[in-house]
């Protein structure tokens, strides 16, 4: 199950809302990586999910 699917089922978000939130998190991830940070807890911070979901943000776990 993807982050978008989790947000839709668990939080009742529309697909558009969930996709927009994931895109915001993806931008945050890439910004933090460019600053030298290794934000392995980003999925928990943004979505309350374990790091396994980082692949959905474009970064392999």
Tell me about this structure:
The longest helix has 20 residues, at 15-34. It is globular, with a radius of gyration of 11 Å. The protein has three helices and no strands. With 61 residues, the chain is mostly helical. Helix 1 crosses helix 2 (15-34). The protein has one domain (3-57). Helices cover 57% and strands 0% of the residues.
What is the 3D form?
globular
- What's the pLDDT, averaged over the residues? 93
- Total helical segments: 3
Number of strands: 0
Helix percentage range:
55-70%
Which structural category fits the helices and strands? mainly alpha
Specify Rg, calculated over alpha carbons.
11 Å
Measured distance between first and last alpha carbons: 15 Å
Main β sheet profile: none
Strand content: under 5%
Structural domain tally: 1
Order of helices and strands: HHH
Low-confidence stretches: none
Which features would summarize this protein structure in a list?
3 helices, mainly alpha, 57% helix, single chain, 61 residues
How would you summarize what this structure contains?
With 61 residues, the chain is an all-alpha fold. The protein has one domain (3-57). 57% of the residues lie in helices and 0% in strands.
